[in-house]
Amino acid sequence: MSERLPVIAIVGRPNVGKSTLFNRIVGKRKAIVGDRPGVTVDRLEVACMLGDSPVVLVDTGGIGEDAHNTMQPAIDSQVEAALDIADLVIFTVDAQAGATSVDAGIADKLRRASLDVVLVVNKAENPDAEMDFFSLGLGDPQPVSAMHGHGVRELVEHLASVLPDFGAIAGQDVEPLARIAVIGRPNVGKSTLINAWLGYDRMVVSPIAGTTRDAIDIDMPYGAFDNNDVVRLVDTAGQRKHGRISDVIEFVARVKAVQAFRRADTAVLVLDGSEGIVEQDMRLMTLAHEEGCALVVAVNKLDLLDDAEWNHYAERLNYRMRGLADVPVFRMSAKKVKGTKALLKEAVAASKRNAFTIGTGELNRWMSQAQDQQRAPSDHGKSIVRLKYISQVGEKPPRLKVFCNRPGSIKASYLRYLEQSFRKRFKLPGVPVRFTFTSSDNPYAGSGSANKQEENPYASKSSKTKRAKPSKR
Predict the structure, then answer these.
(1) Which carries the bigger pLDDT value, residue 85 or residue 392?
(2) CATH superfamily membership of 360-456
(3) 331, β-bridge pairs
């Protein structure tokens, strides 16, 4: 059985460059970076390579200062959780500020915790910028400039040399049973839902809108205890309208949320049952489908609605979702852990539906029946559209290629009909379906005239081959 990866946590005061250093080591812009304290709230964990060694690198919020009194206890608890699982700590300080009393307090705390610590002096563009930090008593400081990349390679080599030895370490990622992104407007209960699924407070929960900014992947066991199935949960930043994103940090958070959709098989949209359905909720549903996620809607805070209020809410929601992919709707209370288990089961099932595959024969039988029930509208008196063959060319979501005589004449209304018919026939509620239409011949047909390209009806006369006129001589 393979052993766990070593965990390296980056800690330090606010705004010393922890997230910038995190991104440099990982080699990607995983953590959100800003020039004000408090940007990182939740801890962010990423598996990466440190030289030849696979590790888990953890970015944490700033500690030791009371710059944000309301959120600081939550940030401190997240840092404590990171330190509890850390095998090595990167204590990051600011060369431009020098060794402060707060740095000394953090250093004392790390010593008393008997943790292996590497002291990193960031923003050390000037020579001997690290000399002031020997006073912290944590060994030789490692000078770097995370912003410019100076000294980072040497730091990575040093970290690799002092990593604890766990014996044989597996570097392969676990393939999850399902990848589920939890989406929604700010403060609707997304993090509370994930905590309910996990059974402990993994995510920062606060009544302050916008607490979660990074998209964070968490693997949790799923199913029986005698198997190795896991579900990967992605908690995304609360979404606001474009016009209300005046802060670049929130803008980047929204972009990262879209990236989370692309890593997910299913999106669980959390709605606040105590509020109405707004346009932003509908935009998120559309965005999830555009990114290829199966969709499940969870109406939170059901305890705040009586039966009459719920019936009115459900009727309004059903009206607003008309035209979508027959999306399943669940009632739940994340805070009271009611309905959350059934919701998770449905989200996993939706992930499996999104990976749906089908044989060409059965697919063509469905298309023939669908076409018999409703023919494609004619194009202003021109020849009717005839759907000839269909094959599946991809999954997650299902992607179907249709061979027909006039692909440019397929109307949006008929495309919606095909999508709805396909989902109904194969029991795929909430799953987006991608159709492409082509005038190319059926690749499975035999040789002969069936393999010839059909003439493009929209081609100009000059582009067609002209027949030579017989000579008058």
Answers:
(1) 392
(2) K homology (KH) domain (3.30.300.20)
(3) 299
